[in-house]
Design brief:
With 488 residues, this protein is of the alpha/beta class. The protein has helices at residues 6-54, 61-69, 75-89, 99-102, 105-123, 126-129, 145-160, 163-171, 178-186, 228-235, 261-284, 297-309, 360-375, 377-386, 393-409, 444-447, 465-487; strands spanning 133-137, 193-197, 207-212, 217-222, 239-248, 251-260, 289-295, 317-322, 328-329, 345-350, 416-417, 421-427, 436-441.
Length: 488
């Protein structure tokens, strides 16, 4: 050491420190890698064991993967996925034509444009509208005052069901937690919340049950689509039969009804969770009524559940459905449950909300009509020529007659429809300004028979729950002012 200069000593110590740092870093990274390996080892061994248990040399890769996937998802979810795969596989059986496979893309696009023009010109004409929608605004009738108030009042619950995530995404309001959101939005207290399940499963939507003392009602609100499991419920879209209680001269009897399979299962699932609680609460709070509320998937589920409970809670049950989807089959002049059940179910469908005219039957009709126009190029060109500008009287007559002919010959698939007594909401339904129109639909099967092709048909902002809440709040305010002015 004595023979070393100061510079050499400094270099030696510097190299030693650098070596110590490298040693520490190597040891640290080695420990981290081993920790990561230890974390993944259990999962890797678990997956390997499942693969070995489910391995069959005669099985295809998809069968092996399906078997492995079944270990990680519930039986209900696995069955829903199988049902959806079967629906897609059987599209031709439901009348859905794969037009892009059968015809050139140009023909499909031009046929789609021709059909879209034909629909929009005819359906928006006064001649066609008078057959489907009442002429009188319901706020002009004093007898509807309570109904309009209830539609506006309970729409707040339907919106609040989406919790803090929905509040933040749709209105920019942030509340910490779903329960806090519910309390802040509706004005009830936490003590009035009887039951709440904020996490949905396949065929088990989220919901809450509250006691609204101001309205003397037990409010069961079912949330709409917010998770992938809710989407699976939506896509189980075949018709399924179920029993509802009806009334005859001899008393109560059972009737067959048909509804959207996923929403029917969801309704039965919610019923199992809350029915006994509601029965007990009605014994405790005499004079209270049961109000089922929902938006979108929640609206369809609430409507089906209302038809199931109509005799159990006879005279005490109401359903308010917002952004109502197609949920049930229309059968004959007397309708079917819950479509024709106007005594307990009230629905609001907004203008441009695609889900009021979306079912397998609607898709089938559209695909068959496009196929028909692809096969008949001369008719397609005639439609395009007569609808290029605002049509005159002769061209309008041509369009009306053609759409009637298409309805009679091609647009004949069995369809789902929105439920109950339906009000069609139009006008300035966004923001806080402008007039809102609310008209009662006379004939459900005419008003909602066509899936109208439109450039904005997939604009989901027309379907969101806060649109219904804000528009109905303005409509209720306008009606109160009109009714007050009439008294003066």
């Amino acid at each position: 050491w004595n023979g070393l200069s100061g510079n050499k000593l400094r270099r030696i110590f510097r190299h030693r420190r650098q070596h110590q740092r490298r040693t520490i870093n190597i040891r640290s990274s080695s420990e981290e890698r081993s920790w990561d390996e230890r974390k993944g080892l259990a999962l890797e061994e678990y997956i390997s064991r499942i693969m070995k248990e489910n391995y069959n040399p005669h099985s295809s890769l998809s069968e092996v993967l399906s078997s492995v996937a079944s270990k990680f998802i519930t039986k209900e979810t696995a069955q829903a996925i199988k049902n959806i795969q079967e629906i897609i596989r059987r599209f031709p059986d439901y009348g859905i034509v794969d037009v892009f496979q059968l015809y050139p893309a140009k023909d499909v696009i031009m046929s789609t444009v021709a059909l879209s023009r034909l629909q929009n010109i005819v359906i928006n004409s006064d001649k066609w509208q008078t057959n489907a929608v009442g002429d009188q605004e319901i706020c002009s009738l004093a007898s509807n005052k309570d109904l309009i108030h209830d539609l506006a009042y309970y729409s707040v619950y339907a919106n609040a069901a989406y919790g803090w995530k929905g509040g933040l995404a749709l209105s920019g309001r942030l509340h910490f937690g779903d329960l806090k959101t519910l309390v802040a939005r509706t004005g009830i207290t936490e003590e009035q919340v009887i039951d709440a399940n904020w996490h949905s499963k396949t065929h088990q939507p989220a919901y809450f049950l509250v006691r609204d003392d101001d309205q003397q009602s037990l409010v069961l609100c079912i949330r709409g689509t917010l998770s992938t499991r809710d989407v699976l419920t939506d896509l189980c879209c075949l018709a399924q039969s179920y029993d509802v209680a009806g009334v005859s001269e001899d008393g109560v009897l059972s009737m067959k009804a048909r509804a959207h399979q996923g929403m029917l299962k969801a309704a039965k699932g919610v019923s199992r969770q809350v029915e006994q609680k509601i029965i007990s609460l009605l014994d405790q709070y005499t004079g209270y009524k049961v109000v089922l509320v929902g938006h979108s998937l929640g609206a369809g589920t609430a409507a089906v559940l209302g038809s199931i409970w109509q005799e159990k809670f006879k005279g005490k049950i109401k359903v308010f459905a917002y952004g109502s989807p197609c949920v049930t089959i229309f059968i004959g002049p007397f309708g079917s449950q819950p479509v024709s059940n106007k005594s307990i179910i009230t629905s609001v469908v907004g203008e441009g909300d695609i889900f009021g005219t979306l079912s397998l039957g609607h898709i089938s009709d559209i695909s068959k009509t496009i196929s028909y126009l692809c096969e008949n190029s001369e008719l397609r060109q005639e439609i395009l020529a007569k609808t290029r500008t605002v049509p005159n009287a002769d061209n309008m007559e041509f369009c009306v007659n053609l759409l009637r002919e298409l309805r009679a010959k091609i647009l004949t698939s069995e369809k789902f429809y929105p439920p109950g007594r339906i009000f069609f909401m139009s006008g300035s339904t966004f923001g806080d300004d402008g007039e809102v129109s609310l008209k009662e639909v006379k004939e459900t099967d005419k008003k909602f028979s066509d899936l109208v092709l439109d450039p904005f048909m997939f604009d989901l902002s027309r379907h969101v729950p806060n649109r219904y809440e804000s528009a109905l709040a303005r409509y209720w305010g306008e009606c109160k002012n009109k009714l007050d002015a009439e008294k003066i």
